[in-house]
Design a protein that fits this description.
Elements lengths: L10 H9 L10 H33 L10 H14 L2
Amino acid sequence: MSTSLNLSLTDELKNFINENSGDGSLYATPSEFVRNILREKKQRIEASQLRDSIIDGFQDAISGNTQSFSGDLRADLNKYKKQRSKHK
């Protein structure tokens, strides 16, 4: 379901959007261009969060905070969550 969103833009931003949409550009409309920019920003945020989680995991491994894999990932995750909630 799509909804409309009205934005107030500076002349500089409006010109930037217009320069990157329409004839001779990758995007047929300003809406397509803005949606793509928002998707890219969302992906960058998600990638940053994933990198942070990976770094946290490496830090845990370096500090020896690890568990042996039982062969059942769900069971291991549930066990970890229970242990973690006890320590809060």
